[in-house]
Specification:
Elements (H helix, E strand, L loop, with lengths): L1 H16 L3 H14 L1 H7 L2 H4 L4 H14 L11 E6 L5 E2 L3 H9 L2 H10 L1 H10 L4 H12 L8 H5 L9 H10 L4 E6 L15 E9 L7 H7 L6 E5 L10 H17 L4 E11 L3 H8 L9 E5 L12 E7 L8 H10 L4 E6 L6 H4 L1 H12 L4 E2 L1
Parallel strand pairs: 4-5, 4-6, 6-7, 7-8, 8-9
Antiparallel strand pairs: 1-2, 1-3, 3-5, 4-10
Helix pairs in contact: 1-2, 2-5, 7-8
Length: 376
């Protein structure tokens, strides 16, 4: 009995440490296995004839629900979709799927955040500067650690694969796969979302920063209710986008979405870049496609080579972030050029303003972009 109690305590501690539903379910299954004889003895007589098989079945159903979706066309609002060279959907490589299942992105974040000092040498080797690590430590010390996990909770029953694994495989094993996140509109009491509801929807294209196309961001963009959010990625995890990527939005990604049955309002195409992903905004501002966007939004990234563009520009950053310090002056310069400019600048915030102020930022984006579905 003492041995069982010690094992049970360890399993409960492990359950509390893990962040993902997948591993929390496994810990409960192991705890159930330790005490299954005692649990069976406590069952009422009418339930004993069924044995404990129904409970195992329930656990395995929960485990299956906790696994990332392998189906090409799942019913989730947020999905990671693999695309072939023509932009048609395909199943993810089985190896990537299995690794994604066994090492959920949420657990990587959980371990990295909770053991930042242990993980620091590895993170530094990946090119993340000491300032960013120090800012993360400061946020944790100030009680903001939950901000890094809330987006995962916000995904709810949606359980897409992580977009970083395809990039890791491309970078390390020289594969050539491509995957994007698609977040479908939520719909409301006036217009219920479906691909065939007779409405065209705004398209918001999100470009990630350094370290890849994280699932975490989708838990934030899911609250952009009345639009289709497409999160594209660089081949590797560097988050440096070029003019080629901007061209592919119109020649590759949008045609791909339309073949999937999405109806896009081409007058409402918006581009967002986070940190290194701000390179996409810079490239688009100097691209022939600048006229095809309704707005540009840069988060935690100063913009280089400012010029007058035929759309609005939103700048979002924090005063403690070197990557955002120029935003107030850049907003002033853009306004003098005649560009409608929105500025959300919080002096006490750092590079992680997106996770720390996600609700305010979502409301600002909704207001500035004026995301509205229109009847076809």
């Amino acid at each position: 009995m003492t041995k069982k109690c010690i094992i049970s305590v360890l399993l409960v501690v492990a359950w509390a440490f893990f962040a993902s539903l997948f591993y929390k379910t496994i810990m409960l299954m192991l705890l159930f296995l330790v005490w299954k004889k005692h649990i069976f003895e406590m069952l009422p007589p009418w339930a004993k004839k069924w044995g404990i098989r129904p409970y195992w079945m329930l656990f395995f159903v929960c485990l299956w629900m906790a696994m990332p979706r392998y189906l090409i066309d799942s019913s989730d609002r947020v999905r990671l979709v693999y695309l072939d060279k023509n932009g048609d959907t395909k199943h993810p490589p089985l190896t990537q799927y299995l690794i994604n299942t066994l090492i959920p992105e949420e657990e990587i974040v959980n371990f990295g955040i909770r053991n930042l000092m242990i993980a620091r040498p590895v993170i530094s080797m990946m090119g993340v500067g000491g300032t960013l690590i120090a800012q993360a430590n400061q946020d944790i010390a100030n009680g903001k650690i939950h901000n890094f996990f809330t987006p995962y909770d916000n995904l709810g029953k949606d359980n897409p694969m992580s977009g970083i694994y395809v990039q890791v495989f491309n970078e390390v094993f020289r594969t050539n796969d491509r995957a994007v996140y698609i977040c479908e509109p939520k719909g409301d009491e006036n217009v219920r979302w479906s691909k065939e509801n007779g409405f065209k929807y705004p398209l918001v294209v999100f470009c990630h920063g350094y370290l890849g196309n994280w699932q975490l961001y989708q838990g934030i963009w899911k609250d952009l209710d009345n639009s289709i959010v497409l999160s594209i990625g660089t081949r590797s995890m560097n988050g440096i986008f070029t003019n080629r990527d901007i061209n592919e939005i119109f020649s590759y990604y949008i045609p791909s979405l339309e073949r999937m049955g999405y109806h896009i309002d081409h007058r409402q195409i918006h581009l967002m870049g986070l940190s290194n992903g701000g390179s996409a905004v810079i490239a688009a501002m100097h691209s022939s496609h600048a006229k095809d966007f309704k707005s540009f939004t840069s988060v935690s990234c100063n913009l280089e080579g400012l010029r007058k563009v035929p759309c609005s520009v939103n700048l979002i950053g924090g005063g403690e972030d070197n990557s955002s310090l120029l935003m107030p002056s850049q907003a002033s310069r853009l306004s003098k050029m005649g560009v409608h400019t929105g500025l959300y600048f919080v002096p006490e915030e750092n590079h992680y303003v997106l996770v720390n102020r996600r609700n305010e930022i979502i409301e600002l984006i909704k207001q500035e972009m004026n995301l509205t579905c229109v009847r076809e």
